[in-house]
Amino acid sequence: MFAPSAPDLPAPSLYALSQRLARERPDAPALRWQDPSSGERTDWTFGRLLEVADALAAAFAARGVGPGDRLAWLGLSHPSMIAALFGLARLGAVLVPLNHRLAPAEWAAVLADCGPRLLVFDAAHAAAAQPLCASPGQPLPLPLATLPTTASAGTAPAPRDGLADAPALLVYTSGTTGTPKAAVHTQRNLLANMAIAAQVQGMTASDTVLTVLPLFHVGGLCIQTLPALSVGATVLLHARFDPTATLRTIAQERPSLTLQVPATLQALTAHADWASTDLSCLRAVWAGSSLLPPEPLQAFLARGVPVSNVYGSTETGPFSIALSPEHSASHLGSCGWPAPGVEVRLLDARGDEVPPGQVGEIAVRAPNVVASYWPDKPALDAEGFFRSGDLARQAGDGSFTVVGRAKDMIISGGENIYPAEIENLIATHPAVAECSVVGQADPRWGEVAVAVVVLRDAQAGDDWDAPLRAYLDGRLARYKWPRRWVRLETLPRTALGKVQKAALKALLETPAPN
After folding, report:
1. Which of these three, 357, 377, 402, is where a domain ends?
2. Cβ of 469: how many Cβ atoms within 10 Å?
3. pLDDT digits (tens, 9 = 90+) for 420-446
4. Is 3 a domain residue?
5. Neighbours of 86 (CB within 10 A)
6. Is residue 240 part of a domain?
7. By residue range, what is the domain housing residue 422?
């Protein structure tokens, strides 16, 4: 399925975009940063953002950073990271944001893979960063606190043109299915994603966007933050997610849009200040996830705030399929329709398109989709499509609903079972806080579904699963029913809130203690 053509790029390059914004809106607020832990704040106009980008470009160039070089960034979300993206783009260099929730060995593996020239780190990660720079061949250390914020006259590097197709951002995948690999986003990819995301979300310069998700991932950086800046909107940037600070900011600074994930949606709706916080400033909450639990969506809808889903991945920009606010109530559980300029196909195992109404793997072709992984491994098939590994079904109205990962599909007794269908149903039971369904080998059926459940009542008795089994009767075909039920206090998740199904499967295979 092909959506309308993609909107025009906001500028020919990232640095040209920062110049245009500084020229057109020099005194308008661009970034307001807050650290919930310390209360420290920073306010930048668009003019100031360009000044810092120029200062950083000069500082990086003085340390030998040039076209094609990588600069790694280890720290909490900060305006300087965005300025560094623009400054590095001016040099033709590449930003590599590190997931600050990883272990030191995982950071070391990323640095060894991409070979950055410099490692920028904030005070919170100084102790962890120093060993990463200690051995020969490793990046030079560069504390965030030492970075300049004003370029000296005559020291700024000359602007470069024609860099739209040059790499600008390396983002490593979560690694839930194996060794992480870096998607290579060019300036053109990022600019196309800004245009697509801004158009679908109806962003204008009058918007104020609250960013609480980490900038080391394309979700926090590219779904709202960069698109908002590209149209001259204001971004309220938090160093990290904190539900108290998020609700306080909504009440006091009145953002019009924000991006969340399932884990943060649940944290907000379960917070003591949820009911008393005025949400009327929000025209929508967007959620970066292929699958959203129904309860927090309904909690926001009950408060008059639609929750709009965005489907995508590290490789797709990530803005690919979106559910608009006006459809959030009628299409609960759906990802919506392809964004402008995004072509989506559902493919079978042979690579052929599946018949209408059938489940197939999502394949995406669009100007914001990366062409390669670092350093030069192709990310696309022969027709230019990215094969996502996600399974979906398309409804008669053209909307898509994700039913799970291809690798997570359970084949039991010759029947295909899609975990998301079972998870979404079990999650609607009032006793269930969270649910994940995984497959487990079985000598009779080949594989069976196992439901791993987090209950709201920690004191539930031994027969806790009986009402859940009864709940499925008449709602789900019996061959799809879980053959085993497991209760946990929490589900293992990645830094961005995705359930780690590989970890769940490993847990199920571990013998119970005597």
Report:
1. 402
2. 13
3. 889 988 999 999 998 999 999 887 788
4. no
5. 26
6. yes
7. 409-509
